[in-house]
Amino acid sequence: MKRHFYILIAGALLLVVQACNNTKDVEAELHRADVYMDEHPELALEALEAIDTGALTTPETQAKYALLYSMALDKNYIDVTNDSIIAPAIAYYKNHGSSDDKLKVNYYWGRIAMNVGDYESAMTHFVKAEQYADKCKDNVAVGLLHNAKMHVYQYLYDVESVIVEAKESASAFLLAKDTTRYLNAINGVLAGYIQIGDTLNAELHLDLFKHYWTSLSPSQKSRYYSGMLFLYGKDSQQIDNILYKYFDDITDPEIIQWLPVAKSYFHHSRYNDAADALTNYQEYGGEIDAAFYYITALVQEAMGNYKDALDSYKLYVNINSKRDADLYVTDARFVEERINTETRLLRKNYTIVIA
Questions:
Q1: Among 50, 49, 45, 101, which residue's Cα sits nearest to residue 76?
Q2: Taking Cα atoms as reference points, which of 33, 98, 111, 106 lies closest to residue 60?
């Protein structure tokens, strides 16, 4: 009888030890995926998909897996359209976890909402995530959060808020010493100032690219020249020089920003060159959006192709009309967030920082 009892006890202890070992193995795999996440998201996804989800025996490991898996899918450009995957993380980190965990789960929850075009829900999640930003140790995550908010405000045509969020994003990436993302965020600030016609601030931010010139990627240099074209594309004394340097520095046509090139050619009555630039824009994967149709309409009209110009203008109007209708439904619900943004503008004095 005693021997049978001891066998049962030994068996139970063995199961406990195995469970502990399994938990440690799973935690090690989750940590490995986390390490891969930023630089090698494809490896992070492979590591996560290799995990036996049956071994996720605690709410903590289930939540960690759900968050990391959601992150890996997003970073591998796999758009998730419902919150079933991230749900365990949402439930667990509501009352547990660090500020980093809470920020990330709300940020990726918002990203899922953006994937289905629900910008209202996305902003709700982003605002909640921002509550944890001050205590968050992962500055890249904070930068990504503000970058996402910037994209929502771009959709809403709220340029002042775009600039605020782009600056917040740039500051976070600078703290993280992530030069690539920092300059991408500065490009967002630059685009905002160009859009509102603030030439002085646009020039100041454009100059930041020169500080990093030797370490810029071809894509980042292309963005610099694109900014130059937006700022000085109507100046007949500068346009040829800018375009010459642009095409001399950037030889890959897939990287060239053909839309501002087309617009610059149009302003200088080089309509055939503008039409060629628009053709290149389509050929090399440019987004066929309202801006494309607007410039196309201008060029076609100038060339005397009135039917084509009218067709392009109609497409431009249709896209804007749909967007205006969406904003009519959604925009009023962002009043509270806009008040918060205005408060931050009053309290914070932004300065340009060079690493």
A1: 45
A2: 98
Burial category of 39 from C-beta neighbours within 10 Å (exposed 0-12, middle 13-18, buried 19 and up): exposed
Average pLDDT, integer, range 201-215: 91
The pLDDT, as a whole number, for residue 161 is 93
Average pLDDT, the chain: 86
* pTM given for the model: 0.80
Residue 269's φ and ψ, nearest 5 degrees, are 60, 25
DSSP assignment of 103-164, as one string?
A: HHHHHHHHHHHHHTT-HHHHHHHHHHHHTTGGG-S-HHHHHHHHHHHHHHHHHTT-HHHHHH
Surface-to-core class of residue 91, CB atoms within 10 Å of its CB (0-12 exposed, 13-18 middle, 19+ buried)? middle
Q: Tell me which H or E stretch contains 64.
A: helix 59-75
d(CA 197, CA 231): 9
- Calculate the CA 191 to chain-centre distance: 15
